[in-house]
Amino acid sequence: MSLVLFEFLQFALLLAAAPLLTGLVRKVKARLNGRVGPSVLQPYRDLWRLLRKEVVLAPNASWLFRTSPYLIFTAVWLAAAIVPTFATGLLLSRTADLIALVALLGTARFALALAAMDVGTSFGGIGASREMMIASLAEPAMLMVTFTVALIVRSTSLPQIAEFLLTHAVGIRISLFLGLVSLLMVAIAENARIPVDNPATHLELTMVHEAMVLEYSGRHLALIEGAAMVKLLLYISLIASVFFPWGLALDPSEPRALAIGLASYAAKLAVGGVVLAFFETSIAKMRVFRLAEFLGGAFLLGLLAAIFLYVSQGV
Amino acid sequence: MLSLLAFSLGVYALASLLGALLGRRALVGVYGLSALAAALSAGDAITFLATGATPEDALLPFGLPWLGAHFHADALSAFFLLAVGVAATLVSVFAVGYGRHETEPRRILPFYPLFLAGMSLVLVAADAFSFLLSWELMSVASWLLVLASHRERETGNAALLYLVMASLGAGALLLAFGLLSAGSGDYAFAAMRATHLSAGQSTLFFLLVIIGAGSKAGVVPLHAWLPPAHAAAPSHVSALMSGVMTKVALYGFVRRIFDLAGPAPWWWGALVLLLGGVTALLGVLYAVMQHDLKRLLAYHTVENIGIVVIGLGLALAFRADGLGGLAVLALAAALLHVFNHAMFKSLLFLGSGAILVATHERDMEHLGGLIHPMPVTAFVFLIGAVAISALPPFNGFVSEWLTFQAIVNGSLLPQWLLKFAVPVVGAMLALAAALAAVCFVKVFGVVFLGRPRRPAAATAREVDALMLAPMAALAAICTVVGLVPQMVLGLLRPVTALLLPESPWLVLSNWLWLAPLGADHSSYSGLVILLAIAFLAALLVVAVHRLGSSRLRRSPAWDCGFPDARPETQYGPSSFAQPIRRIFGTVAFAARERIDMPAPGETRPARLEVSLRDPVWDGLYAPATSAVGWLADHMNVLQFQTIRRYLTLMFAALVLLLLIVALSQ
C-alpha cells in the first residue's frame, strides 16, 4: 500500500516541482544578466493563465493536433516518474528501463513533431525537421551512455543502477566521466537550451522547439510548456540519480531515509538549475548546422565510453 | 501439419488455375481461396508451435528418380509459416478490394497464388532439389508479379535487375548445397547435417549462403534490386515481397547456418553482425532521402532486415563462445523482429496501396492532408509508422529492446574484434532506430498532415471496408504483440530448443513484465505503459477541463503573422530530409547542393539542385555491369566463326577438360 502512496507522491512532486525549477533557472539567468527578473513562481502563474484561456485552432487542424498535447504531457510525466527522484524501488520503476525511457521520450517527440506539421505552415515544418535532426543524434548518444552504465551495473533498469552505484565502490572511471559529459550535452539539446536552441528567443528562424509549438494556444500550449518543464526536471533527476545517487532513500517507508531523500533531491535540483543558468549565460547560441558537430561529439564520447568498457571488461 | 499444407497447396493451385482461365471474373475466387489457404497454414503453424508437436517428414515419389522429394516440418518451418500465413491471409483479403482497381488482372491473378505456394514450399522443403525448385518458383512468380505494370518504363529495368540478382543468389545457393553434399552425394538435408566440412570448405559455404540468402533478403551491398522491384509491383504484392518474401530468405539463412552447417566459428557471427549493422544504417539513410512512398518503404525493409541480421549475428557469436542463454535471447529477438516486421511492413505497404487507389499518387511531393478524407487509413498507418520507428508501446520496440539487451551483454564475448564490433553495431542500431523515427515523421507528416499539395490529394476518398479491415487487423496485431510480446515469444521456445538445444529458455514467467534474463535484470512492460498513459491522460483531460477553460475557436493559422496560402510553402519530403542530407548524406552519398541564384534584375526563378550518388551502385554494380559489357563485346567474335574453327575450339575444350581430370587425380 505504501508503495502506491509513494508512487503518487512521486507523480505529485514532479508536477509541483517542475515549474519551480524552470522559475529558478529563469531567475538566476536574469540575475546574471543584471536584471531583477520575475519571481520564481512566475511559471505557475503563466501556466494557470494559459489554462484559463480559450484555444484558437486552425481550420484544418486534425484530431492529432488536439490530442497530442495530452499524450506528450502524459508520456513525459510518466517517464519522469520512472526515474528515481528521492527513492528507489517505486512501483512503476520496473515498467521501463533506461532504453525504454529514451524510447518513451521518443514517442512524445514523435507526437510533437507530427502535431507541428498538422496545420501545414512552414514554421511547423522547419521546427519538426530540425527537432528530428537533433533527436537523430541525441537519442543514439543517450543510448550509448545507457550502454556504458549498463556494462558496469549489468542492468539497464534505473533503480538497479542507482542502488548498485550507491552500494558498490565503483571508483572513479574514465568511462563514467565521458558518459556524464555526453549525457549533459544530450540534456542540453533535448531541453532546447542554449547553445542548441533558445527557450526565450523571439527570432523565429533561430527557433526549433518554439517553432514547432507556434500554432498552439490556451490549454494546449499550457500542457506543452508544462511537458517541457517536466522534461527539464526529468533530465536533471536522471543525471543526479545515475551519477550523483547519494541521499536516495533505498527504503522510503523509513521516515529518516525519506527525509534525507527529499532534502537531497531538492538540493540536487537547485544545484542543477543554478549550474544550467550559469552555463547558458556564459555561452552563445550555435548556428543550426554546427549542432551536428556538438551532438556528434556527444555521440562519439558516448561510443568511446562504451568501447572502453567493452574492451576493459574481462570474461 | 504437412497434410494440411498439401491441402493449402492444392487450394493455391486451384486459385491459380481459376485466375488463368477466368481473369477478372475470378478475382474474388482467387484472393478468397488464397486467403483461405494462407489462414489454414497459419492456424496449423500456431497449433504446431503451441502444442510442441513432433516434426513431420514426408518423402514423395517425384523429383530426381534416385532422390525423391523430401519434406520436413519442424518448429523453425512452423514459425516462419506462421508469419507468412498471417500476413498472406490479410493481404489477400485486402487484394479483393484492391484488385478491382487493377487494369490488367490477368497479369497478376494466376501468379499470386503460385507466389504464396512457392514461399510455403520453401519453408518445408528438406532436400536441395525441392528447396531450389520452390525457391525458384517463389522468385519467378514474384518476378512475373513485378512485371504486372509493364507499361511503366521503370518496371522493365527493375524486373531485369531483379532477375539477374535472383539468378546470382540461386546460383550461390546451388553451389552451397553442392559443397554440403559433395562427400556423400546425398542431397537430403538429413544427410547434409552429418557432413563435416574442412575449414576452407565451410568458409566458402558460409560466404555462398550469405550471397544466396542475403541477395534475396536485401542485405547491403546485395540490396540494389530490392527497392525498385518492390516499388514497381502492385501494392499488395509489394506487401508480400517486403513483409514476407525477405523473411523466407532469412529462413534460408537460418536453416543453413544454424541447422545444417553445424558448429560455426566466432568470426561468422562477427561478419554477420557487421553486415547487419551496415545494412540497418545504410538502409534507413537511403530511405530518408526518398520521396516515392513505396520506394521509401522498400528501403526500410533493407533497414529492418539489417536489424534481424544483427540479432542473428549476435546469436552466432554467443553460440560459438558457449554463452547459450544470451544466444537464445539474441535469436529470439531476431525471430520476433521477423514476425513484427512482417506485420507492420505489410500494414504500411497496404496503406500505400490505399493511398494509391484514393489519389493515384505515390510521390509524396504531391500528397498531403489525407488525414481528413481518409481518417481510418491515417489512423492505422500511424500505428504502423510508430511501430516501425521502434517506439513504445508497439511491437517494433519490443524486438529492438531485446536486441539492445543482447548487445549490452556483448562485453562477455572474449574476442577482441567482437568487443569492438558489438558496441559499434549497437551505435549503428541506435542511429538506425532514431533515423527511422525521422523518416516516419516525414512520411506521416507529409502524406497525411498539412494541406493537400495537388488536387488529387484534396479530392481523395476513403477506401472501402474490404481494404480497411485487413489493415486494421494488422494494426491490432502490432498493438497486441507490443503490449503482450510473451504471446509470440512463447511460440519461439520450440524454435530455439531446435537450433540451440542445450541452452536455457528465456524467463517469461510473468505475462505482465518482460524480463527475459530474470527479475534482477532489465525489465519492460508495454501494457503497464499503455495503462499508465491512459489513466494519467484521462486524469489530465478531466483536470484541465475542470480547472481551465474548455472553450475552442476556429481561426486561420497564425504562422507568425504571415501565413501563405500556397501549399508549396509547406515543408515537403525533400525539405524535411534536408538536415539529415547535410549531416549524413554528405558522407554516405556525397550529397551536394547547388544553388543557382539569378542576379538582381533577372526574372528567372532561383533553383536548388541536389545531387546524390549511391556508393554501392558506383562501387560495385557499375563496375560489374561494365565488366560484363566488356566481356560480351570481346566474346562477340566467337559468334561469327567458320565451322572449322568451332570444331577446333570444341576439340581444345575437350583436351583441356581431360587434362584437368588427369591432373586432379
Mass-distribution shape of chain B: globular
The quaternary state of the protein chains shown equals heterodimer
Which pair of chains has the greatest number of interface residues, and how are they split between the two chains? A-B, 88 and 89 residues
Derived from helix and strand composition plus strand pairing, the structural class of chain B reads mainly alpha
- Helix share, percent of chain A: over 70%
- The total beta strand count of chain B reads 5
Largest sheet of chain A: none
Biggest β-sheet: strands ordered side by side in the sheet of chain B: 1-2
- Biggest sheet architecture of chain B: 2 strands, antiparallel
Proportion of helical residues of chain B = 55-70%
Question: Segments of chain B where pLDDT lies below 50 for 5+ residues?
Answer: none
**Number of strand elements of chain A:** 1
Order of helices and strands of chain B: HHEEHHHHHHHHHHHHHHHHHHHEHEEHH
User: Radius of gyration of chain B, Cα only, in angstroms?
Assistant: 26 Å
Which class best fits the helix and strand makeup of chain A?
mainly alpha
Rg of chain A computed from alpha carbons, rounded to a whole number of angstroms? 19 Å
Q: How much of the polypeptide of chain B forms β-strand, as a percent range?
A: under 5%
3D structure, described in words:
The complex is a heterodimer of chains A (315) and B (665). Chain A is mostly helical and 315 residues long. Chain A is built from eleven helices and one strand. Chain A has helices spanning 2-32, 42-52, 63-82, 98-118, 122-153, 158-167, 174-190, 209-212, 218-243, 255-281, 291-312; one strand at residues 55-57. In chain A, helix 3 runs parallel beside helix 9 (218-243), helix 4 (98-118) runs antiparallel to helix 5 (122-153) and helix 5 packs antiparallel against helix 7. Chain A is globular, with a radius of gyration of 19 Å. The mean pLDDT of chain A is 90. Chain B has 665 residues and is mainly alpha-helical. In chain B, 68% of the residues lie in helices and 3% in strands. Chain B has 24 helices and five strands. In chain B, the strands form two sheets. In chain B, strands 1-2 form a two-stranded antiparallel ribbon. Chain B has a two-stranded antiparallel sheet with strand order 4-5. In chain B, a hairpin with an 8-residue loop joins strand 1 and strand 2. The model of chain B has no long low-confidence stretch (mean pLDDT 91).
